[in-house]
Amino acid sequence: MTIKQQQLLLGLFFLGIPLLWLLVWVIAPIFVVLYLSFTSFNILSPPEWVGFWNYEDLWHDNLYWRAFGNTLYFTAFAMPLGISLSMLLALLVNTRLPGAWLFRTIYYLPVVSPLIATALVWVLFYEVSSGLFNYLLNSVGLSAQPWLNSTTTAMPAIIIMSVWKSLGFNMVIILAALQAIPKELNEAASLDGAGRVRQFFAITLPLLRPAMTYVLITTLIGSFQVFSQVYVMTEGGPNNSTVTLVHLIYRTAFQNLDFGYASAMAMVLFIILVIASFINLRLVSRGNLYE
């Protein structure tokens, strides 16, 4: 066996492991869910083919559209707020001053904290009678809020917690991209009379496009897949005001044992995320990076 043949076999071996993992745990489950979405399946009996009946039921399911609207609501506020604050934090900690590393660590700590434990702590913060937030409101003369017990404030409360939890991750991605920008570009622009704001929009932001593309797509997918916060903090209540698509899929599949109907919901969500990610990728990455 020649050296080139040995290198080819070695490459196929190391490439085959991740491809096998991708096939077993990503591609195959997608086709399984696609098949189940055309069936009536309660795990206690074999799947029964029903065609497009599940998708027709989705069209007339008010709870599904309520969950869809709640998910859009969550995404519309959590996504821009989280990315904007992450950008601001990255700009603030992008410095060589003593102690900057400490703030980077503090901002990143929520990311490595277990999500379930974090959600439970925030439930205590939102307690009406003894929670931290109502204590702070009362201390400045404002009335206490029902937070998780009101249809008006429950979703904003979950959004605040979710944005806080994910700030550090996006901050690190943007910070790495900021530190990769050559300082000579800003120095040259400064000599030409460009201020900091002008430098940010003319130099920094265009050069952040690859990182921002990644942040936007991952944040979009994460926002549409929000589940743990809802499950722990409100269980979809009150009055289904915080039920999201993934939470409804969970309830339909594992509480109602209607895996066929849940699979149809999952396939619709999958298609939405693929289309939204593709559009996002095309819009953000359009044009020449260095023009």
Descriptive tags:
mainly alpha, 2 strands, single chain, 73% helix, 291 residues
Overview of the structural elements:
With about 290 residues, the protein is mainly alpha-helical. It has one domain: MetI-like (MetI-like fold, Orthogonal Bundle), CATH 1.10.3720.10. The chain has helices at about 5-35, 55-60, 60-95, 100-110, 115-125, 130-140, 155-180, 185-190, 195-205, 210-225, 230-235, 245-255, 260-285, and strands at about 40, 50. Strands 1-2 form a two-stranded antiparallel sheet. The termini are far apart.
Distance between the termini: 50 Å
Total of domains: 1
Query: How much beta, percentage-wise?
Result: under 5%
Please state the second-level CATH architecture.
Orthogonal Bundle
Q: Fill in the CATH topology.
A: MetI-like fold
Q: State the helix count.
A: 13
Helix-strand sequence: HEEHHHHHHHHHHHH
Structural Rg? 24 Å
Roughly what percent helix? Answer: over 70%
Overall geometry:
globular
Total E-strand runs: 2
CATH class: Mainly Alpha
User: Mean pLDDT across all residues, rounded?
Assistant: 90
**Could you name the CATH homologous superfamily?**
MetI-like
Structural class designation: mainly alpha
- Unreliable stretches: none
Strand line-up of the largest beta sheet = 1-2
The largest sheet, given as strand count, sense and whether it forms a barrel, is:
2 strands, antiparallel
